[in-house]
Specification:
The structure holds two protein chains of two kinds. Chain A contains twelve helices and 14 strands. Chain A has a six-stranded mixed β-sheet with strand order 6-7-8-3-9-10, with helices on both faces. A four-stranded antiparallel β-sheet of chain A has the order 2-1-4-5. Chain A is elongated, with a radius of gyration of 25 Å. Chain B is an all-alpha fold. Chain B has one domain. Helices cover about 85% and strands about 0% of the residues of chain B. The longest helix of chain B has about 35 residues. The chains are: A alpha/beta, B mainly alpha. At the A-B interface, helix 2 and helix 3 of A face helix 1 and helix 5 of B.
């Protein structure tokens, strides 16, 4: 649905977007992730034909943004960071106006207007003046405006920014419910949002592509496949960590025991299992039966957050290529 | 061009839901009403004077009332036009709605023409108010309507040119005051350029006088349909709107 190749946007002094390439299939929700100033908005603006790329190409539904901007615009619904509302208009009047400039007429227009009013739950403010609406309602009217012409692609720039937690949840649910009919790109710098709403994630930093993968894959990489951190202490005198390690290696299902550190009479190990088999119970029993104390036993999981932080560290040079990036991140967190 | 009318209607609506339109119309009506009362009063006074002397002083409503009045309208226009155009693009830029217009499947030219047309219609509405005053002249006097019609055409052409310039200047900033002040400055300059020819006859002063927006209005005020001056105004309109469209496009390259 969306093909982006070597897309670049250069300004006089800096490069906002630097040779980004990705592809997005039909019906997907894609999270566009990056710290502030990473180039998310610039990329989105190029996709919506608001900004022309300096070099490279972007195509929506097979139409190039430079060659066929009108065709692209017809297929895109765009919600900028600040919902583009006319403060003096009333909700229905606004949606009718937007519907008209997006090519809807007559019965079609009335039908779509009624539909988006219901879909975005803004029926109760339909005769209110937009300038007096609350932030949550403004956002929803903005979303209604974006979907009124039933576009193939929805581009949402930080759709939940500045909303309260309840409104954030409502907006996310709304976005998820739209996924069936539209391909959605949403930008954000809030990670849980991506985990909760998106199937695929594109991480960019300083204008460069840092990673692109499915959310599941990234999470799996992050989790370190069932590793467990164990903290063992001894009650009488210093602990012989080699003995503990040997003992732990004998636990059924354990493939590898890594000694991490020792502090006085306690030691920390990281244990990996061969399979999905839950090894925690066996590990706990072994430690206790040997007469040691089990201070802590927890999953060695790395959150998507840590991957993100790693990927978007100041120098992006080191974390290319993207595939190994997440692994490096997960690995580093384990060490 | 259907999209042009959609934009135009939207602009007209926002003129009339805000106080701008009412403020402009009432200010114009009051100022013009004062001029009208003055001009007619003087005409009546001069008429009585002539009668008392017994001489047959030639009295002509067209020459002595309508012609100075339409010239006054053209000057009042210089002051009101910046207020009409200043919000056209500056406000869209400030509120971010420009992103909606630019990413909608419509052409830039349709946006530009729609906005300019809305400004023209508001100005034409102001002229309509003067028609109420002039109607009294036709009720109690017997002026010729053709020179008046030509004068109206001239006023529309002149305003069209200044509105196009104002629309262009409004695309350059997100601050309405800046847009308005710049437009006012340009309008004023285009007016006073005419004075350059008063004491100079060199080529440059003739060129400057030619650029003055008011010199081209003289024939229309007299009731002469001057093709040459109409072409001047039309050229200015096309140039102004062309610059507006280019500037709108350049927003994307620069922002």
């Amino acid at each position: 649905m969306i093909t982006v190749q070597q897309l670049t946007k250069r300004y006089a002094r800096n490069t906002a977007v630097d040779h980004i390439s990705f592809e997005i299939g039909k019906g997907q929700i894609v999270g566009f992730l990056g710290p502030n100033g990473a180039g998310k908005t610039t990329t989105m603006r190029m996709l919506t034909c608001f900004l022309p790329p300096t070099s490279g190409s972007a195509a929506v539904a097979g139409f190039d943004v430079l060659e066929k901007p009108l065709e692209v615009k017809r297929r895109i619904g765009y919600l900028p960071e600040m919902p583009p509302l006319y403060a003096e208009m009333r909700t229905v009047e606004y949606l009718t106006f937007v519907g008209k400039i997006k090519g809807l007429r007559g019965a079609d227009l009335a039908k779509r207007t009624a539909f988006v009013l219901e879909r975005c739950a803004i029926q109760d403010v339909k005769d209110r003046v937009l300038g007096k609406l609350s932030k949550g309602y403004r956002q929803r009217v903005g979303l209604a405006q974006a979907i009124i012409h039933n576009p193939d692609v929805l581009i949402l720039d930080e759709p939940t920014a500045g909303l309260d937690p309840k409104q954030i949840n409502e907006t996310r649910d709304l976005i998820k419910s739209l996924a069936g009919d539209h391909t959605i790109i949403l930008s954000t710098h809030i990670l849980p949002e991506v985990e909760q709403t998106c199937q695929q994630v594109i991480i960019i930093n300083k204008g460069r592509l840092a990673a692109t993968d499915s959310v599941n894959n990234l999470q799996n990489r992050a989790r370190g496949a069932g590793s467990v951190l164990v903290e063992v202490a001894s009650r009488n005198g210093p602990l012989q960590s080699e003995i503990v390690q040997r003992r732990l290696e004998q636990v059924p299902g354990v493939s590898r025991v890594l000694f991490k550190e020792t502090r006085g009479n306690l030691s920390i190990f990281e244990i990996s299992g061969t399979s999905d088999r839950a090894i925690r119970g066996d590990v706990a029993r072994t430690v206790v039966e040997a007469g040691w104390d089990l201070n802590e036993l927890r999953s060695a999981a790395v959150s998507l957050e840590e991957i993100f932080l790693e990927l978007t560290k100041t120098d992006v040079e080191k974390v290319e290529p993207s595939a190994s990036a997440a692994q490096t991140a997960a690995g580093k967190a384990k060490e | 061009m259907g999209n042009m009318w959609i934009i135009c209607r939207k602009e007209l609506r926002s003129y009339f839901v805000s106080p701008i339109a009412y403020l402009l119309l009432s200010m114009f009506a009051i100022v013009f009403g004062f001029f009208f009362w003055n001009a007619v009063g003087y005409f009546v006074y001069a008429g009585m004077e002539a009668q008392m002397r017994g001489g047959m002083f030639p009295m002509n409503l067209n020459e002595q009332v309508i012609r100075p009045l339409v010239s006054n309208v053209s000057v009042i226009g210089l002051f009101l036009i910046p207020m009409i155009t200043m919000r056209l693009f500056a406000e869209e830029k400030r509120s971010g709605t420009i992103e909606l217009l630019v990413t909608a499947p419509i052409r830039d030219l349709e946006v530009v023409l729609g906005k300019w047309l809305a400004a023209m219609i508001l100005y034409a509405g102001m002229l309509l108010l003067t028609a109420l005053n002039f109607a009294w002249l036709f009720r109690y006097g017997n002026p010729d309507w053709k020179p008046l019609a030509v004068a109206y055409l001239g006023l529309l052409l002149q305003a069209g040119a200044l509105l196009a310039v104002g629309t262009f200047l409004s695309t350059l900033t997100r601050n309405q005051i800046v847009a308005g002040a710049a437009t006012f400055g340009v309008c004023l300059l285009l007016w006073v350029l005419e004075w350059a020819s008063d004491y100079e006859s060199a080529t440059w002063s003739r060129v400057m006088a030619y650029l003055s927006i008011l010199t081209h209005f003289e024939p229309f005020a007299k009731g002469l349909l001057s093709i040459k001056d109409a072409v001047f105004y039309l050229t200015a309109i096309v140039l102004g709107l062309f610059l507006t469209a280019r500037s709108l496009e350049s927003l994307r390259w620069r922002s």
